[in-house]
Amino acid sequence: MASILIIDDDAAFRGGLADMLHDLNHVVLEADSTPAGLHLLGTQAVDVAIVDLRMPGEDGLAFLRQASTVSPVPCIMLTAYASGGNTIEAMRLGAFDHLTKPVARATLLETLARALQQRSISQAEKDPAAGHDAHNAPADPHELVSSSEAMRQVFKRIGLAAGSEATVLVLGETGTGKELVARALHRNSPRADKPFVAVNCAAIPSELMESELFGHVKGAFTGALGERIGRFREAQGGTLFLDEIGDMPLPTQAKILRVLQERELTPVGASQVVSVDVRIVAATHHDLPAAVKEGRFREDLWYRLQVVPVVLPPLRDRLGDVLQLAEHFLRLIGGDVPKRLTPAAARLLVGHTWPGNVRELRNAMERAAILSQGQIIDVENIDLQTNAAAVAQPDINWDGSMAVAVAYVEREMIVRALASATGNRADAARRLGLSRQQLYRKLAEFGLE
Ligand SMILES: Nc1ncnc2c1ncn2[C@@H]1O[C@H](COP(=O)(O)OP(=O)(O)OP(=O)(O)O)[C@@H](O)[C@H]1O
């Protein structure tokens, strides 16, 4: 039940609309002019205003201009005839939507439902205890976000290991946050004010690996026109993150082992050793014990690295983190006014299996923020790479019956049609051979609206 303010000088139209809204159990407030409407807005609880654009004296645009200073609520504008100009002006002034009279009951109800949804989202922003959490502090791109039990164990381990000099090996599928863990170890260590240097071992050609890591002297090889200090010495006093260490060539592995043991290295072409004071954090998505068995990774280095192993669970094993992460990324993108997910969009995200883990979620949120207009991200703005397969059946548990199997297939077909129609419901309905009304009913039935 919501409180809806109707402002229209046409008493008959107002009365008809009020009856319809009463039937739907809403509380209705009526005003015949902008000043009367502003008075009600300032003195009564109002969730949505439905405002006629053309009224004698101060019109609906005047109401819009003043309403935000009295009490900001979503305003649906009504006119007997629409022109591009007044639509643009109304939208520019912050109208929620713009409808033409006579308004079809279904269209009005659908718009009202969206407006009420926006209302509840912005209420939750104002009052974190009321719903979604709202963070006023700016989002930190290096923050590890999670509230799952599996990640709590990871945080504990980071906390315990950060203060020590122990070498840490971070294991996990691609995109699970291994680099963020390495940064967290550094940021919480006594080395925090010294450099953090990240090297992606898989991205460096093997013939350049030694010079990249250990540096070289001038003239060490053709093309070595000057001296280079290399990544180890760049990280002096701080932390060196060796990402994708499983892809490191065997000869370099032997040299890394020596640095770990002796704490000194020899730059390429140099005759003198140089001491280094660097804490090593390494990471890989490979199965290192298997690589050891196959002779692709040195066993002694494996033992040296995994003094403290940290295993990151894939996102599909901590789906409880998905919405928190999604909102975190929307805050990173949107700053003070991040876009919000509708409940249906949130359900879609939680139903996905995230083969690309947190990185895939971050990319999906970046795309959705671009593809959505306004402040709301809905299902049609979310383009998941493996959309149809990934919308796991959160609402359908097959009990062996034909009816449930059919429902499952229908849902799958609808998701696919919406994906191919890039979210356009009329187009999706055509592809499915359904009327729009039938599609809307199905969307509601399957919780996809
Ligand atoms: N728990 C988390 N909280 C916030 N952001 C995260 C989290 N986990 C990962 N990310 C973000 O997801 C993206 C991928 O994370 P990261 O690069 O650390 O993964 P990775 O495991 O090192 O990937 P790869 O194996 O491909 O190198 C980054 O943008 C990172 O900021």
From TrEMBL:
Keywords for the protein's UniProt record, in alphabetical order: ATP-binding, DNA-binding, Nucleotide-binding, Phosphoprotein, Transcription, Transcription regulation
Annotated GO MF terms: ATP binding; sequence-specific DNA binding
Region listing for Disordered, in residue ranges: 120-142
Keyword Zinc: no
Origin: domain of life: Bacteria
Modified residues (4-aspartylphosphate): 52
Sequence ranges assigned to domain Response regulatory in this UniProt record: 3-116
GO biological process: phosphorelay signal transduction system; regulation of DNA-templated transcription
Compositionally biased intervals (Basic and acidic residues): 124-142
Gene3D superfamilies tied to this protein: 1.10.8.60, 3.40.50.2300, Homeodomain-like (1.10.10.60), P-loop containing nucleotide triphosphate hydrolases (3.40.50.300)
CDD domains assigned: AAA
Boundaries of every Sigma-54 factor interaction domain copy: 144-370
UniProt name for this protein: Sigma-54-dependent Fis family transcriptional regulator
Organism: Pigmentiphaga aceris
